[in-house]
Specification:
The protein is built from 1 helix and 11 strands; from the N terminus they run αβββββββββββ. It is mostly beta strands. The chain is globular, with a radius of gyration of 17 Å.
């Protein structure tokens, strides 16, 4: 019975999506490794499909640091040049979708009470569908 408890504990650790360690510190299990978060961060960016279109489609999901809270009302900006920007506000389920011209983008997410995120280098291709999951830490 003790062995089953340890096996369960080990499996729970390996497959749990998050482990809350301390206030404003979160451990996230990604496909690559277990990482510790203290700042807001994109935890997943992957191509998830293709569509017959000349635009790139990006589905964004904004989560709180516990990864159970869906963050609605966050401003999500996708900038491809200094003067070309698309903006959305995450909905009730923490989601928003962009249909943008293929290019290299910088993503910025901000909301009062949360640590802002800005990350560059997202190359989006025409006809591709992407999923971007973002965890926002409390400020």
């Amino acid at each position: 019975m003790l062995i089953q408890f340890f096996r369960f504990t080990l499996l729970s650790f390996l497959f749990a999506p998050t482990l809350l360690l301390a206030q404003d510190t979160t451990m996230v299990l990604t496909t690559d490794s277990l990482i510790q978060l203290t700042e807001s961060r994109v935890v997943r960016f992957a191509q998830t499909g293709e569509k017959a279109t000349d635009k790139a489609i990006v589905n964004v999901l904004i989560l709180g640091s516990d990864q159970r809270e869906l963050i609605s009302g966050a401003t999500v900006l996708m900038r491809r040049d200094k003067d070309k920007m698309h903006g959305k506000v995450s909905g009730q389920k923490g989601r928003c979708t962009f249909q943008v011209a293929p290019a290299n983008y910088t993503v910025r997410v901000q909301m009062t009470g949360l640590k802002s995120l800005e990350k560059q280098g997202y190359l989006l291709e025409a006809g591709k569908v992407y999923q971007m999951d973002i965890i926002m830490m409390r400020s």
